[in-house]
Design brief:
The protein is mainly β. The protein folds into 2 domains: 88 residues, Immunoglobulin-like (Sandwich), CATH 2.60.40; 116 residues, no CATH class. It has 3 helices and 15 strands. Strands 1, 2, 3, 4, 5, 6, 7, 8 and 14 form a 9-stranded mixed beta sheet that branches. Strand 5 and strand 6 form a beta hairpin. The N and C termini lie far apart (73 Å).
Length: 265
């Protein structure tokens, strides 16, 4: 009798109907301002990007135009950032280098609301020689932790000017390696990444960035929501930490960067 009842229950569940469940999302304007700002010690026009978070699933953010953006260096120079007319929401300052150990203060005035943030760059250790290994007739990068200070390295790989670049195919890629000197369970058990291979003759451009304590906390929270997500020990979803005043999300970072270029052969 128990066996018959189990079979009947299984058949009932197997052929039961599914009813579509529709839920409504609250897509009201959050009123938040998204800030992407990383100042470096490079002698360039520093850039700050402002946008409004998108309000629909799979949507895109809208540029925050018409803002007043300034950065003060310690208690001295004030740099004004001007919006690029050809790239709304992107604000460029004059050419200057962010100095390690100096506190930089960001001020944004947008639609009558003021937002502020501060950060200070820490030194960065030199790059170690690029490591890579051969996989059949191609190559892949070897990414290992090094040193004692937190950092991340942005690798940009291109083989556009080699005979291995076929027409109509993207012959470039990007890998960002984070070494934040933290012990995160969700990082240890993060999902595996797809293998990235490239041919001989490829050029690897590396930029290594120092990470201040506050910037490190921000990066950890972002990685917990992105690259480290999908493993066994996921954290509850939440907005990433920020050093911006109330009403803004993102981060204002000041970092020291060193760079090098390697041809893989």
């Amino acid at each position: 009798m128990k066996i018959r009842m189990t079979i009947l229950l299984f058949i009932s569940l197997l052929f039961s109907c599914e009813e579509r469940y529709a839920t409504e999302f609250d897509l009201a304007n959050s009123g938040l301002l998204s800030v992407e700002a990383v100042l470096t010690n490079e002698n360039i026009n520093q850039k700050i990007k402002l946008s409004i978070p998108y309000q629909q699933l799979n949507g895109s953010s809208a540029p925050a135009t018409g803002a007043t953006v300034r950065v003060q260096e310690g208690n001295g120079a004030i740099y004004t950032f001007i919006e690029d007319v050809n790239n709304p929401g992107a604000y460029y300052g004059p050419i200057f280098q962010a100095v390690s150990g100096t506190v930089y203060t960001l001020q944004i005035i947008y639609k009558g609301q003021e937002y502020r943030a501060q950060d200070s760059a820490v030194p960065v250790t030199p790059l170690t020689p690029l490591q890579y290994q051969k996989v059949n007739e191609l190559f892949e990068l070897i990414l290992n932790d090094s040193g004692q200070d937190p950092y991340y390295i942005d690798h940009r790989v291109t083989w556009k000017n080699t005979g291995a670049c076929a027409p109509g195919i993207s012959c470039e890629g990007r890998i960002v390696f984070y070494d934040l000197k933290s012990i995160d369970v969700n990082e240890i058990y993060k999902p595996a990444k797809e293998q990235f291979l490239f041919p001989a003759g490829a050029i690897v451009i590396r930029n290594k960035y120092s990470v201040s304590p506050a910037y490190r906390t921000f990066l950890r929270s972002v990685l917990s929501e992105t690259e480290w997500r999908g493993g066994v020990f996921d954290v509850d979803r939440a907005n990433a930490t920020t050093n911006l005043s109330k009403g803004a999300i993102g981060f204002f970072a000041v970092t020291t960067v060193v760079s090098d270029v390697t041809v893989v052969n």
